[in-house]
Automatic annotation (TrEMBL):
A Pfam family the protein falls into: EVE
Name of protein: EVE domain protein
Upper taxonomic lineage: Bacteria, Pseudomonadati, Pseudomonadota, Betaproteobacteria, Burkholderiales
InterPro entries assigned to the protein according to its UniProt record, in alphabetical order: 5hmC_binding (IPR052181), EVE_domain (IPR002740), PUA-like_sf (IPR015947), THYN1-like_EVE (IPR047197)
Ranges for domain EVE: 2-149
UniProt source species: Collimonas arenae
Length: 154
DNA sequence: GCCAACGTTGGC
DNA sequence: GCCAACGTTGGC
């Protein structure tokens, strides 16, 4: 069992949006970074814990809890000429971009980026490191415990 | 294989 | 809208 933090722009897909979907599940389309792709393709397991993070918005932070809900499969948007995620170098025989399904479990209170930075036990979190832009990052078991404990208290 | 140019992310 | 950081591209 591993843990992850996955960023989504709430204007695109917020935790509320995903909870409103059938099965509360969304294909995590649009990742176009190899490191992030490799986490989905090579490292994620069904049932892994996911911190659902809102980025590119007024108050960025953790907005919900989710889980990995599928094994990896090709991201369809890479083949779609009309999609902004279309990749001319991808083809169906050798898909370049893989994704997993993510099932939203619950909306939480927002733990803002500023609040995360105040937490000494989270000092080494990938998301808090200078210049980090990766949209998917591993979360340690200790970091996961700290954050979920905090959510239960509040 | 180097590296300059360019594009993107994402907080502020 | 700005800009720092960093990934990707492509000429050489």
């Amino acid at each position: 069992m591993n843990y992850w933090l996955m960023k989504s722009e709430p204007d695109d897909a917020s935790i509320d949006d995903v909870l409103a979907l059938p099965k509360q599940t969304i294909a995590w389309y649009g990742v176009r970074n190899y490191q992030a792709r490799n986490f989905m393709r090579d490292a994620m397991q069904v049932g892994d814990g996911v911190l659902f993070y809102h980025s590119g918005c007024a108050v960025p932070g953790i907005a919900g809890l989710a889980e990995v809900a599928s094994t990896p499969y090709p991201d369809d948007t890479q083949f779609d000429h009309k999609s902004k995620y279309f990749d001319p170098k991808a083809n169906r025989e050798e898909p370049r971009w893989m994704l997993v399904d993510v099932r939203a479990l619950k909306k939480t209170r927002l733990i803002s980026l500023a609040e995360l930075r105040e937490q000494e036990p989270l000092a080494d979190m990938r998301i808090l490191q200078r210049g980090n832009r990766l949209s998917i990052t591993p979360v340690s078991a200790a970091e996961w415990r700290h954050i979920t404990n905090k959510l239960m208290k509040a």
